[in-house]
Amino acid sequence: MNILVTGGTGVIGRYVIQDLVRAGHEVTNLGRSAGGDLSCRHLRADLTNAGNVYEALAMSRAEAVVHMGAWANWGIVPHTRTYGDNVTGTFNLFQACADLGVRRVVSASSAQVYGFEKFPPLYVPVDEAHPLRPLNSYALAKIANERAAEYFVANYGLTILSFRIMATRAPAKIASEVAHLSKHPETGTFLLWTRGDARDCARACRLAIEKEEVASGVYNITGGVVLSETSEQLVRRYFGDRTEMRASLKDHESPLSCAKAEAIFGYRPKYLWSETRAYPEEQ
């Protein structure tokens, strides 16, 4: 399958490309900068330029898209650009897909939409129906993009899966973060003591692209709790009665539930990092 990946030189995007290429797909990376994985074609283009996006889709002969291209957080550029560029780029991509006949898109959203940096979860496990509480321009843009996805699904017949990705890192970065959390578990509430491996997120993207029939919508994507305490113990200790325990959490599964992704396209995290387990990349 010909697959266009936006943001393929980013933290997650480079692993998306590697995973797709290894699975036998023809991949084109679209981004502002060239370079990265030499196993695929690279096109330099600006997602906020609609003409660039249309031409890139046509040149790549894309049959599906994995959309990772964006300002990766708030604070990199002014808020007006964070929101404006991320929303414009995503709308341009969705419209071009609709007009050029690309029917399957995986689009990166973020678990920042839940607002856990300031507020504890209202309940756990946190499913995709949990109320949204955006705290910055980046999260607000992600919500706008999820709504745009719904619009293109309803009006153009696209299949778009918006991945609410949480705490996903390149493997080389995870061990140091686990070590810090081990000493300071109180700092882990924002990301629910969870870390996801970029290789798992990449596999989730591929599974969602390859599945013959898959439902559009939002999907939580993350890894597991990395501390020796169980997920339930951590939730009770740090959130107490502010968070309703709607169902028991199994051992070290993330309080952010990926059950929907598992049920719809078979995603389960493979690289479950912890204080005693590490999964460095093969050199």
How does this model look, in words?
By secondary structure, the protein is an alpha/beta fold. The chain is built from 8 helices and 12 strands. The strands form 3 sheets. The protein has a 7-stranded parallel β-sheet, with helices on both faces. Helix 2 crosses helix 3. The protein is globular and about 55 Å long.
Encode the helix/strand succession as letters.
Answer: EHEEHEHEEHEEHEHEEHEH
Outline, from the CA principal axes? globular
Q: Sheet bearing the most strands, described?
A: 7 strands, parallel
Q: Hey, roughly how much beta strand do the residues contain? A: 15-25%
Weakly predicted, low-confidence segments: none
Rounded Rg: 18 Å
Share of helix among residues? 25-40%
Annotation field: number of helices: 8
- Name of the CATH class of one domain: Alpha Beta
Class by SSE composition = alpha/beta
Mean pLDDT: 95
Q: Count the strands?
A: 12
Termini separation (Å)?
27 Å
Helix and strand arrangement:
Blueprint: E1 2-6, H1 13-22, E2 26-31, E3 41-44, H2 50-60, E4 64-67, H3 79-100, E5 104-110, E6 123-124, H4 137-156, E7 159-165, E8 168-169, H5 171-183, E9 194-197, H6 198-210, E10 217-221, E11 224-225, H7 231-239, E12 244-245, H8 259-265
Parallel strand pairs: 1-2, 1-4, 2-3, 4-5, 5-7, 6-12, 7-10, 8-9
Antiparallel strand pairs: 9-11
How would you briefly describe this protein structure?
By secondary structure, this protein is α/β, with parallel strands linked by helices. It is built from 8 helices and 12 strands.
